[in-house]
Specification:
By secondary structure, the protein is α/β, with parallel strands linked by helices. It has two domains: 140 residues, TPP-binding domain (Rossmann fold), CATH 3.40.50.1220; 77 residues, SIR2/SIRT2 'Small Domain' (2-Layer Sandwich), CATH 3.30.1600. 30% of the residues lie in helices and 21% in strands. It is built from eight helices and eleven strands. Helix 5 packs parallel to helix 8. The radius of gyration is 18 Å and the shape is elongated.
């Protein structure tokens, strides 16, 4: 038999320990901005410069951040399992820690795309500026799924969850949809775990083994548990 497939859903909690703040940490404000100002198609139409400035700042913050012990723990699990990470995060900390299979539900901060054709995607390391044009003449915008936009990676993510032999949630409050709905597709009867500093209501009733602690502490504990049980 091949190695068991471990599917991991990660959220902002794992990146927060690397110093990357989320809008949910601060009363609906993200680095002092409301979501409506910087993370919707309407914001882009109204003030593209503000949106670009905001994400250029985010890109700079991510570049300076470092993977933490939780990111490295997930990468280490590839020694034992076939690990597929599905992340709600736009940073690249999973990849930098060594995880080889990462699906980004909400886009990637180090990519940009045409605001005319979302298939025209390219890598970006520095700032995106007004006047930076894609091959189709569209203005480059962050390759981020904004609020009120469809989450196109949700279908591939559902397919991955349905193939899981084990399922793990790390650092997410399970309130952002459609990502939170992935839990509904976990195969019945497989081991399921959650590591979070505040376990969402109702999860343990859904058969999850819960470790209520920050990811950097909880993931090593989970790894020891899996090893002990021989799962």
């Amino acid at each position: 038999m091949g190695r068991k497939k471990l599917v991991v859903l990660t959220g902002a909690g794992i990146s927060a320990e690397s110093g990357l703040r989320t809008f949910r940490d601060s009363d609906g404000l993200w680095e002092g901005y409301s979501i409506e100002e910087v993370a919707t198609p309407r914001a882009w139409k109204k003030d593209p410069q503000l949106v670009l400035d905001f994400y250029n700042m985010r890109r700079s913050q991510v570049r300076e951040a470092q993977p933490n012990a939780a990111h490295y723990a997930l990468a280490e699990l590839e020694d034992t399992y076939e690990v597929q990470i599905i992340t709600q995060n736009i940073d690249d900390l999973h990849e930098r820690a060594g995880s080889s299979q990462v699906l980004h539900l909400h886009g990637e901060i180090f990519k940009m795309r045409s605001d005319r054709d979302e298939q025209l995607v390219t890598r970006v390391e520095g700032d995106i500026r007004l006047g930076d044009k894609a091959p189709d003449g569209g203005q480059y915008r962050p390759h981020i799924v904004w609020f009120e936009e469809p989450v196109r990676m949700i279908e591939p993510a559902i397919g991955l969850v349905q193939q899981a032999d084990l399922f793990l949630i790390v650092g997410t409050s399970l309130v952002v949809y459609p990502a939170a709905g992935l839990v509904q597709y976990v195969p019945r009867g497989i081991p399921r775990y959650i590591v979070d500093k505040k376990i969402p209501y109702g999860v343990e009733g859904a058969g999850f083994v819960a470790i209520e602690s920050p990811a950097t502490d909880g993931l090593p504990r989970l790894m020891a548990m899996l090893k002990e049980k021989g799962i």
